[in-house]
Specification:
Length: 337
């Protein structure tokens, strides 16, 4: 490894440390913020003697803390899936929301809640959402490789947007015809972390950790993609198998995130773009940096959702959309110029 690569790895370590500190600060601010004002001595007494079963303790442990953990877990999954997509497809516009993974996961969850063919245990919900994400993205890839030019990253973005719109239209039609499911999922469909409990976290966090582990294992092969597909093949990296593996890991991560907090978009687009030259040296460290950046972004968005119009809470997904759409437009404009 040359001196430039070593310096880049060292910078990534420093960025990761800074990001972890930011996450800790945001989490501390978040747990203090909410519709109910909780005095500081309640937090101190909870640390000194937990188990007092007061209402303040219930709010802290069962409402605010799971919400913070959900934002960290889902943000990490979305940030890592965005970096994996962008590296595997060699397209900086790769993002689960744009390329149809979130829409596919949402469609799978809505259909299983509306027309359950069999009782689905909560532990299998992330895998069902991941299957929907992978199926729709597989269709995006199939369409974008059709024609004379074979695989085209720009075509992939356009087909992703089109198929996402189609999946969202089907979701809307299903929910209009089933008001009970609409009432049950209406906040989840916008993307929100409110009301998430430890059972949902227990069902999704292990799959997110598994996805991050496999993503780290894939990074040496994906790093060869930066040299070009021909050189990567000559170095022993199977482009086709690596891309399929990256698709499966991305589907697992994005599906798990959607099953937990709903179809929150643009985290996977912003998190890798936040750091300079991150795509020039793909590595496990770069993947973890993207994951933790996603956690920080979603945690910050959720904190703003709670505090901007307090005591009224805004949907977290609405804020990420407001922040992410301009970033997407900027990246597209820079790509076309």
């Amino acid at each position: 490894m040359n001196a430039g690569a070593l310096r880049a790895r060292q910078r990534q370590r420093h960025y990761l440390l800074v990001t972890l500190v930011v996450i800790a600060i945001l989490a501390a601010c978040h747990i203090l913020q909410g519709p109910r004002s909780i005095p500081l001595h309640s937090y101190l007494s909870l640390l000194q003697s937990p188990g007092q079963q007061s209402f303040d303790e219930f709010v802290i442990l069962f409402l605010r803390l799971p919400r913070i953990l959900a934002a960290v877990a889902a943000g990490a999954a979305l940030g890592a899936s965005g970096f994996l997509l962008q590296t595997a497809m060699r397209n900086r516009l790769g993002e689960p929301q744009i390329l149809g993974l979130n829409a596919g996961a949402s469609l799978a969850v809505v259909l299983l809640n509306t027309y359950p063919l069999f009782p689905l245990p909560p532990l299998l919900t992330p895998f069902a959402a991941s299957f929907g994400a992978g199926a729709l993205f597989g269709l995006v890839l199939l369409l974008s490789t059709a024609g004379r030019n074979r695989f085209d990253p720009d075509k992939m973005v356009f087909f992703g947007i089109a198929l996402s719109a189609l999946a969202n239209a089907i979701v809307s039609a299903v929910l209009i015809l089933n008001e009970d499911t609409l009432e049950e999922l209406r906040f989840w469909l916008v993307g929100d972390t409110a009301g998430i409990g430890y059972a949902a976290l227990a069902a999704t966090v292990p799959t997110i950790l598994i996805g991050l582990l496999f993503g780290c294992l894939l990074m040496p092969s994906l790093a060869a993609f930066t040299l070009g597909e021909t050189i990567a093949s000559s170095l022993g990296a199977s482009v086709r198998r690596t891309r399929i593996a990256a698709l499966l890991v991305t589907a697992l991560l994005s599906g798990s995130a959607v099953s937990l907090v709903g179809p929150i978009g643009f985290i996977g687009l912003i998190a890798p773009a936040f750091w300079p030259r991150l795509h020039q040296l793909p590595s496990a460290m770069a993947l973890l940096l993207s994951a933790m950046s996603g956690s920080a972004l979603l945690l910050a968005a959720d904190l703003l959702a709670v505090s901007l119009m307090a005591p009224v809470e805004l949907p977290t997904g609405a804020l990420t959309g407001l922040a992410g759409a301009p970033v997407f437009i900027w990246l597209v404009a820079r790509k076309l110029t």
